[in-house]
């Protein structure tokens, strides 16, 4: 592994960088890009992210050594810093860009790529002047750095850690494969036949016999478990939010009769005690349309509704003692009628032939469906879509706004004392003109391509976007080491910056400029995420840099591009698997993009659940005022996430707490953290691989 | 203090979320919504999702009318009024609880020299009262 030698401190602009150590650079880039993929996948799936600097620091790959100053963060040095530059933008592209998928219009991948690369490059232009001014940043208690620093074993054998990462990644790949295998026609977890176990989740409620209104499921997601382990104690907040949404609010709403499911349940109750396939051999003799076996006299109206579900058109429902017969138009067997209208699938998802229908296979298929009808999953998804989701999105936005606001005072203080340079100060004055100038030009082009018409409005949007970009970088830049202090809330600040920018751009550009506004907000978000995540590296590292500035520039350009590629591939895979790229119900719900879409709808006057969003925003803002600026955003995300994912993440966090207590923190650092990083990596890699296969094969 | 503040915040978050959920129970019940939900309930079985989803598209239109005709009472469409005793007052209480918790935690942080969870650093990430305080100190408002 790259136990690179620390370079002696340098003060000139070029002498400190060892561009010749190609092996180190290549390895750092590779590790950074893999982490980038993992973190982008996590941001899409969980809406949470670490600051990119925290992960390599926690891994402590090749960090430490004699060059490290006492009290500084070892992980920020050399190799880990290089990794961070390649992984930093992972949050940026994944937060806002999926909004375009949710809006349902054109997604403009090339323009988005241009915007992302520009954002990354501007970020590196801003961080560059700070490169040679190492600062003694105090270490945040509870952060990854603190753990790493207090761990006497550092630096450790990178080989051991890499081995653990590979083990974790292999495990994650294997588990993830069985969650998606079903949709590719292979045997997945669901074919194990375990009660309540499907390909993607495990319904624990069936085992624990909880009421129907409680949706106690565990998502099978190694990514979430690994993420929770890395998050540690703060991951428990996500679990608490999930419990609040899934196990408290949802059942309460059901019991209190606040949901329409109450009405649906009432409807279903009329035929809920249908005992269906008790007389199975009956089909072989005479294939009917369908038959239900009822203990009591069934309600004909309810049965008609039920039959209508299955057959669409029903002319007659006949109750004959304990058997119910349904006739369809033309008095032909319904199954034969239906085969002309639409395909019918059997229990295993395969298309049924006419012969099979005659044998009654389709009837069996339907009959197997019916007894499982319950409110459980439906209630949970309804509540998430209509109630807890909007509240959570409001919390996310409110909390993110506070994260931005709490970045203001240092900016204000510093700008009064003139200690914060503008673009390029100390690194060549030309940058102060070139960087915003380039942004202005690119923004204008992006807007013109994304939305033809009204050049003055495009120009206005470009100016507003550039101004907000500058403001965002100024806010993100002094946030030194805050990302570490925030732990899993590392995405709160970029989210807030992007959401505020989106609102400004929408107000300037109006409704038709929505696509362009999202693209510009993506660029701003990438720049903010890159700056926010790499500033600690730059601030604490300075002299120990293993490579030249060009490597940083390349990293800051390639990182966002790769991150965007991950977003595109995940969208392609989700669309292939479930016909839904992002949003509620998709395997990767992209909570931030949902919040952005909701804000756009509210800003454009489409009053959708206005009260819920505002109430959530108030709660999120107040929670964020309590000392941890990301609390509102993290709790909001946990309300938007399906309960299964929150539970998986919470289990990971509990594992971490347990491991810290019993085998000890040394064990956690040596084995647990690399294993968790491996778990984090495997799932997105598999999805990318499958997406590539579905796109190109 | 260390115990009281998290308890206040937790209680405020729980109460506030439940109350906000009640705030949202003003959705308009349309037969189409209900038909969609009914179908969703029917297609809950994951392995046959596709089957019934395809069927659902065919059925929805007719089903909506049938459900409307079934004359099910929708107890969940309720009026939004402040006069009614409800969780809306709970929301007000939750907001008060959270604000008080935030205020106390900021006071405690300022008193102990720990701001935003970090000791000895006054400039970095403070909560909002701290932010306001800093802004006021730096002359932002005047």
Question: How does this model look, in words?
Answer:
The complex is a heterodimer of chains A (697) and B (142). Chain A has 697 residues and is an all-alpha fold. Chain A has two domains: 22-172 and 378-696, no CATH class; 273-372, no CATH class. Chain A has helices spanning 22-46, 54-59, 78-87, 90-96, 99-103, 109-127, 144-149, 158-180, 204-208, 222-231, 235-255, 261-269, 282-285, 300-311, 334-341, 354-359, 361-369, 376-405, 408-417, 430-450, 455-476, 482-486, 492-509, 514-541, 549-578, 591-603, 610-624, 631-640, 643-661, 665-696; strands at residues 201-203, 217-219, 316-320, 323-327. Chain B has 142 residues and is mostly helical. Chain B has two domains: 1-24 and 81-142; 27-77, no CATH class. Chain B is 63% helix and 3% strand. Chain B is built from five helices and two strands. A two-stranded antiparallel ribbon of chain B has the order 1-2. The radius of gyration of chain B is 25 Å and the shape is elongated. Chains A and B meet through helix 11, helix 12, helix 14, helix 17 and helix 18 of A and helix 1, helix 2, helix 3, helix 4 and strand 2 of B.
Key traits:
heterodimer, A: 697 residues, mainly alpha, two-stranded antiparallel ribbon, 63% helix, globular, disordered N terminus, B: 142 residues, 5 helices, disordered C terminus
Give the gist of this structure.
The complex is a heterodimer of chains A (697) and B (142). With 697 residues, chain A is mainly alpha-helical.
Q: Give start-end ranges of low-pLDDT stretches of chain B.
A: 41-80, 111-129, 133-142
Output mean pLDDT of chain B.
57
- Binned strand content of chain A: under 5%
Please summarize the sheet with the most strands of chain B.
Answer: 2 strands, antiparallel
Query: If strands are numbered along the chain, what order do they take across the biggest sheet of chain B?
Result: 1-2
| SSE order of chain B, one letter for each helix or strand | HHHHEEH
Distance between the termini of chain A: 36 Å
Question: Oligomer, anyone?
Answer: heterodimer
| Structural domain count of chain B | 2
Rg of chain B, nearest Å? 25 Å
Strand share of the residues of chain B? under 5%
Unreliable parts of chain A: 1-20, 62-77, 128-156, 266-303, 307-349, 357-374, 418-428, 480-485, 542-546
**What is the mean predicted local confidence, pLDDT of chain A?**
70
Portion of residues in helices of chain B?
55-70%
Q: Globular, elongated, flat, extended or rod-shaped: what is the shape of chain A?
A: globular
Largest interface: A-B, 97 and 83 residues
């Amino acid at each position: 592994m790259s136990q690179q030698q620390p370079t002696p401190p340098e003060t000139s602009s070029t002498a400190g960088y060892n561009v010749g150590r190609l092996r180190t650079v290549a390895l750092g880039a590779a590790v950074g890009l893999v982490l980038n993929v993992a973190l982008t996948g996590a941001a899409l799936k969980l809406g949470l992210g670490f600051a990119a600097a925290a992960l390599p620091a926690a891994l402590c790959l090749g960090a430490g050594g004699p060059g490290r100053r006492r009290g500084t963060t070892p992980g920020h040095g050399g190799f880990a810093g290089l990794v961070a530059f390649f992984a930093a933008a992972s949050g940026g592209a994944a937060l806002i860009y999926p909004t375009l998928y949710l809006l349902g219009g054109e997604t403009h991948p090339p323009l988005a790529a241009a915007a992302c690369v520009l954002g990354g490059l501007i970020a590196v232009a801003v961080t560059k002047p700070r490169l040679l001014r190492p600062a003694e940043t105090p270490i945040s208690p509870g952060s990854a750095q603190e753990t790493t620093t207090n761990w006497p074993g550092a630096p450790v054998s990178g080989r051991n850690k890499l081995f653990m990462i590979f083990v974790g990644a292999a495990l994650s790949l294997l588990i993830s494969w069985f969650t998606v295998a079903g949709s590719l026609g292979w045997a997945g977890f669901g074919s194990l036949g375990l009660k309540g176990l499907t390909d993607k989740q495990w319904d624990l409620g069936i085992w624990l016999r909880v009421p129907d209104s409680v949706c106690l499921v565990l998502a099978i997601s190694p990514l979430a478990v690994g993420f929770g382990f890395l998050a540690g104690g703060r991951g428990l907040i996500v679990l608490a939010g999930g419990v609040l949404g899934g196990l408290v609010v949802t059942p309460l709403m059901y019991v209190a009769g606040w949901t329409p499911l109450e009405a649906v349940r009432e409807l279903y109750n009329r035929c809920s005690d249908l005992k269906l396939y008790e007389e199975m051999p009956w089909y072989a003799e005479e294939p009917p349309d369908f038959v239900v076996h009822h203990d009591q006299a069934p309600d004909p109206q309810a049965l008609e509704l039920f039959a209508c579900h299955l057959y669409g058109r029903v002319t007659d429902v006949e109750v004959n003692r304990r058997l119910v017969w349904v006739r369809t138009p033309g008095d032909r067997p319904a199954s034969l009628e239906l085969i002309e209208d639409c395909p019918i699938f059997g229990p295993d998802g395969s298309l049924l032939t006419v012969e099979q229908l005659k044998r009654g296979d389709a009837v069996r298929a339907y009959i197997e469906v019916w007894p499982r009808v319950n409110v459980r999953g439906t209630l949970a998804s309804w509540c998430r879509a209509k109630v807890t989701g909007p509240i959570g999105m409001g919390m996310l936005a409110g909390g993110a706004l506070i994260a931005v606001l709490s970045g203001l005072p240092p900016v204000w203080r510093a700008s009064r004392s003139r200690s914060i340079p503008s673009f390029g100060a100390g690194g060549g004055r030309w940058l102060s003109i070139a960087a915003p100038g380039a942004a202005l030009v690119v923004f204008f082009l992006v807007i013109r391509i994304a939305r033809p018409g009204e050049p003055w409005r495009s120009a206005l949007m470009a100016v507003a976007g550039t101004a907000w970009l500058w403001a965002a970088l100024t806010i993100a830049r002094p946030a030194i080491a805050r990302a570490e202090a925030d732990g899993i809330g590392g995405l709160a600040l970029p989210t807030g910056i992007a959401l505020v920018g989106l609102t400004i751009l929408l107000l300037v550009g109006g409704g038709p400029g929505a696509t362009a506004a999202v693209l510009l907000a993506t660029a701003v978000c990438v720049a903010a995420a890159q700056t926010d995540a790499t500033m600690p590296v730059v601030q604490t590292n300075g002299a120990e840099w293993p490579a030249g500035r060009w490597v940083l520039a390349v990293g800051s350009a390639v990182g966002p591009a790769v991150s965007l590629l991950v977003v595109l591939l995940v969208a392609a895979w989700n669309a292939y698997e479930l016909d839904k790229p992002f949003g509620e119900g998709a395997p990767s719900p992209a909570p931030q993009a949902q919040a952005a879409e909701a804000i756009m709808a509210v800003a454009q006057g489409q009053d959708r659940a206005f009260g819920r969003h505002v109430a959530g925003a108030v709660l999120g803002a107040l929670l964020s005022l309590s000392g941890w600026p990301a609390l509102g955003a993290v709790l909001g995300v946990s309300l938007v996430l399906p309960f299964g994912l929150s539970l998986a993440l919470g289990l990971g966090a509990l594992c971490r707490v347990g491991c810290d207590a019993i085998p000890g923190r040394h064990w956690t650092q040596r084995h647990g953290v690399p294993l968790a990083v491996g778990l984090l990596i495997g799932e997105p890699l598999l999805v990318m691989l499958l997406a590539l296969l579905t796109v190109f094969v | 203090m260390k115990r009281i503040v998290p308890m206040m915040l937790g209680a405020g978050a729980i109460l506030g979320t439940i109350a906000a959920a009640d705030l949202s129970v003003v959705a308009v019940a349309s037969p189409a919504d209900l038909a969609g939900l009914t179908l969703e309930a029917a297609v809950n079985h994951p392995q046959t999702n596709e089957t019934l989803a395809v069927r659902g598209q065919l059925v929805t239109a007719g089903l909506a009318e049938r459900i409307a005709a079934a004359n099910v009472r929708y107890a969940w469409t309720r009026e939004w009024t402040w006069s009614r005793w409800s969780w809306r007052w709970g929301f007000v209480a939750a907001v008060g609880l959270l604000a008080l918790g935030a205020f106390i935690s900021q006071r405690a942080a300022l008193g102990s020299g720990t701001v935003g969870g970090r000791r000895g650093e006054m400039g970095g990430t403070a909560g909002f009262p701290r932010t306001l305080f800093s802004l006021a100190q730096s002359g932002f408002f005047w």
